[in-house]
């Protein structure tokens, strides 16, 4: 397999960590991933001011106002009305045409006494939607942090590949110089030099391809306002549970997507109650005081006060209310299924990442052994070539085997890191690593 093919395979494996799959999980010892590039979060907090995050916060603030609007339907309404105009009249009561400025005014107050639970249902639905919008903002933070983590992981992965290919090129260059010395003594031919030069040319192409992958992976980091050179924070700071079931329980309770879907289900349930309230009567009270004056003859100034209790009972609505109730029930069922699907999805993601981390850990251990064997093999080939038992091509291939083992080791190391970050994302805690705190709902919702 070419080194570019190996690099692409490693990239695909990293992206596959974000997928979901069901199945049994086998826990295995996790190898220590030494030489991991980690650091502080000082250069990562710019995510908080990213337009995507600010937009989610603005939508959350807008959803908070729905609570006030729903509460307003249960409070009294007070208003004042006034009018003024010009009156004209003709007739037996008027000696001549008379004009004057007519005016009237009224102060009215309406008090809802019973609404069939509509108001309470509207408030409950608004509160649930507000919670859901808060979890959407949290999910946007988690997603941004996870996208950034994968971006930085891939950047560092490909930088490691560039360094490995550079070391391979250095070994081949050293070999070339040795062959040129041997040529002067008649112990090597131009064909050997050509073989090395072909390998060096191919490595130059492979390194440029790796740099292209670095540029592509840097896009997400740049979009989020973070330098692609930023070091990765260590996932160990989160002290995640080591047991798979504990991780699943933490994720189901803390994952923003799960909590958002649960809040949507609560809102849908409240809307069912509101729709059923349309079948119940409403009772309200009204008070008003009004007056007016007209300058036409025979019209006096007047002041009138009025109090009333109003009762309304729907008898036949043409099926509109029953259709609305059925619709709200169907929406409620859909919301419940979506909440279940979110929990199942998060559970599958945790199991996949947990298993992926175990497999990557074993691969890391195997890659370490492969690298030791490749290094030992290269030394053996060099020793045998000095006594004429090996060809130049054998040493070229041994150098390639060493580089390939180092690329496998580099890929396995970052596969473990990617799996750890997936676990951190699914548990909703990844934002803490990147200085992106979850939003706190400070509005009064009780």
Q: Give me the Rg, rounded.
A: 37 Å
Distance between the termini: 63 Å
Strand content: 5-15%
Q: Given the structure, what is the number of helices?
A: 9
| Outline type | elongated
**SS-derived structural category:** alpha+beta
Strand order of the largest sheet: 1-2-3-4
Largest β sheet strand count, sense and barrel closure: 4 strands, antiparallel
String of helices and strands: HHEEHHHHEEHHH
* Integer average pLDDT: 84
Helix content: 55-70%
State the total count of DSSP E strands.
4
Walk me through what this model shows.
62% of the residues lie in helices and 12% in strands. It is elongated, with a radius of gyration of 37 Å. The relative contact order is 0.18. The two termini are 63 Å apart. Strands 1-2-3-4 form a four-stranded antiparallel β-sheet, with no helix packed on it. It has helices at residues 3-16, 51-72, 118-184, 190-223, 244-254, 256-277, 320-386, 392-426, 430-433, and strands at residues 77-89, 98-114, 282-293, 302-312. It has 446 residues and is α+β, with helices and mostly antiparallel strands. Residues 1-41 have low confidence and may be disordered.
């Amino acid at each position: 397999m070419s080194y570019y093919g190996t690099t692409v395979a490693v990239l695909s494996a990293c992206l596959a960590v974000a997928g979901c799959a069901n199945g049994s999980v086998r826990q295995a010892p996790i190898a220590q991933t030494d030489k991991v590039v980690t650091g502080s979060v000082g250069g990562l907090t710019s995510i908080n001011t990213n337009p995507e995050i600010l937009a989610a916060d603005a939508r959350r603030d807008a959803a908070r106002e729905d609570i006030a609007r729903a509460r307003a339907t249960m409070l009294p309404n007070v208003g004042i009305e006034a009018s003024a105009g010009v009156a004209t009249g003709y007739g037996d009561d008027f000696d001549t045409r008379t004009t004057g400025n007519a005016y009237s005014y009224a102060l009215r107050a309406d008090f809802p006494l019973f609404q069939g639970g509509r108001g309470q249902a509207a408030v409950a639905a608004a509160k649930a939607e507000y919670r859901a919008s808060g979890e959407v903002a949290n999910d946007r933070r988690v997603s941004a942090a996870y996208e950034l983590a994968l971006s930085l992981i891939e950047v560092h992965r490909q930088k490691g590949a560039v360094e490995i290919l550079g070391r391979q090129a250095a070994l081949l260059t050293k070999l070339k110089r040795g062959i040129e010395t041997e040529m002067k003594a008649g112990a090597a031919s131009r064909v050997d030099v050509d073989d090395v030069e072909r390998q060096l040319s191919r490595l130059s192409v492979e390194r440029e391809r790796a740099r292209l992958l670095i540029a592509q992976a840097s896009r997400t980091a740049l979009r989020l306002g973070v330098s692609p050179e930023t070091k990765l924070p260590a996932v160990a700071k989160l002290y995640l549970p080591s047991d798979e079931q504990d991780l699943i329980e933490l994720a189901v309770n803390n994952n923003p997507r799960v909590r958002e879907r649960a809040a949507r289900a609560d809102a849908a349930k409240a809307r069912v109650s509101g729709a059923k309230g349309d079948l119940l009567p409403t009772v309200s009270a009204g008070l008003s005081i009004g007056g007016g004056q007209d300058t036409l003859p025979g019209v006096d100034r007047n002041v009138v006060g009025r109090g009333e209790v109003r009762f309304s009972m729907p008898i036949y609505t043409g099926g509109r209310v029953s259709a609305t109730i059925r619709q709200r029930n169907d929406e409620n069922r859909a919301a419940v299924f979506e909440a279940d699907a979110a929990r199942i999805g998060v559970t599958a993601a945790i199991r996949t990442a947990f298993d992926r981390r175990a497999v990557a850990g074993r691969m890391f251990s195997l890659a370490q052994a492969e690298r030791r064997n490749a290094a030992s093999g290269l030394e053996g080939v060099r020793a045998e070539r000095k006594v004429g038992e090996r060809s130049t091509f054998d040493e070229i291939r041994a150098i390639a085997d060493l580089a390939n083992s180092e690329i496998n080791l580099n890929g396995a190391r970052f596969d473990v890191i990617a799996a750890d970050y997936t676990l951190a994302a699914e548990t909703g805690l990844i934002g803490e690593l990147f200085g992106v705190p979850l939003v706190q709902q400070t509005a009064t919702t009780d």
